[in-house]
Amino acid sequence: MSSKLNLKYWASLYFSCIILIIISLYFPVIQAPFFFDDNSSIVENSSIYSLDLKKIYAFEPLRFIGYLSFALNFYFSKLNTLSYHLVNISVHILYVLFSFLFIKTLLETPSAKVIGFSKNEKILLALAAVSILALHPLSTFAVSYIVQRLAALTALFYVGALFFYLKARLSQHIQGKILWSLLFIFFLSCSLFTKQNSFTIFLQLFFLELFCFNLTSRKRLALILFLPVLALGFYFSIRYNLIDLNEIRTLTMETTQISRVEYFFTQFSVLCFYLKTFFYPINLALDYQYPVLKSITNPDVFIPAFILIAILLIIVWAGTKKKFRLIAYGVIFYFTAISIESSIIPIRDVIFLHRTYLPNLGLAFASIALVFILFKNIKNSHYSLIFIFFIWMAVLTGFTFKTNIFFQTPVKVWERVLEVSPGHLRAYQALGNHYVFREEKYAKAREYIMKVYKQYPDDVINLNNLGILLNRKNKFQKAVECYQRVIQLDKTHGNAYANLGATYCNMGRYDMALDVLKKGYSIDSTNFTLLLGLGQLLAILAPGPDTQYYDALKILEQAEAINNENHLIYYSKGLAWFNLKNYIQSEISFKKALEIDNTFIEAKDFLIKINEIKN
Known about the structure:
The chain is mainly α.
């Protein structure tokens, strides 16, 4: 009894240490800015600017829970990334906790009892497996990358649902079965409305029963009939128009630029890359310039295909051996969890490391379980294994810390991408966008922007970057031509209207600037850059009617609702109030601008003017 309590105490202490290590590993990115898909999914996504559930659901129905979490972040902290990162880290910790509970419960199933794990061994095995998940550098791509909370949150609900299913399955009391079943349904529902890959959970339950529980004659019959009945149900649903086949095609093709066969062939290589990075995590990057493979005769297709088929054959063999059935389930868990994103559903980006966040649970469990089983009865092996394990954890921790250093700024992220994938045009585009705002980097910005322009002259993001660069180099007419081309290609591009308006202001054409900004505002009234630009211009133009300045204040308040940490909002409000001769409100606004940026000379000058007027 005392040894059991003692182990629980040490297990709790160890888990607490893991949590502290997680916090320390992710501390470097705690205030990292938004970048890449964060912008379209969070910064520029008006559906999360309020807690309007209908609006959030309409934006992305099958990711409703994930976007609701972003809306809650926005409600409490607008675009301050600190709160977003804190939630991501918390989700990661909860995922590690539920993974521990899931694995520990999995070791109570009949397949685990055959192996004969002791209670202490079950706890140690579960702790070792989740330590890998907690500290592995692959996890950073779902934790440090804010928008990929979708992947982490799905994993949390997915594993939670499996844990509660097992608890209901193993419970001996009807009250317990009901309670665990209700929790299973709740977590399952949350998972299904967080990200689409959660739909693999139904297949996961099938394999859980197949590999972890005894096969009665009734269950054998059910398992044998499962796929044929599913196929027949699908056939008759199409035959009698119960489901729309065209709609299914649309839902299962994120892009039409890659065929299902091409995507499937490419995923052989991608899956082998994912497996390699789990065991040997080097050359990790946010994005890769990965080729689409189109022929089975390509060595990059048939060699990985051979490796994967060999793995699956070994798993089939292991599934027939009672001692190795749990290991087989762990590997099957991996392939099942990643199947939606690595099969025949074409996705524009063929590879992203955040997709391995949930599947890696299966590999971590299978790896640790295999070591436990193989060395279980070898004398004096425990100390050596513990030493090797902690060395591996130390190595993973080092890799994770290094990876998080890359996530500190968008520039570091994309420079890392270029290190791993030289010539990656998306990295050039992103770096061009960042360097264009730094005078000392104009030459580098031009180099990157022109590299993209030569291959994709009508890329609107790159054209917009080129316009910014030309504007900053006082080549206003050429900048205008770039922005006009962007608007011609994409009439809803809010930033292009904002930048065109700013360029006209630089040219002294305020009437044209006002027309462009008003037109942009009528098309996209939620674009922060556009709101700020229009509000600023209305506030600055003087003399003007009072209605102009009240319009400026109204628009600037809309901008403030999106981002209340921009000093130019309050400076512009101060100007509007000043032109309305409301010096009290003007003074409050200028002081607010100085609270955000105490070096802002223009705000200080206006405060001096206000004091002179008062006196």
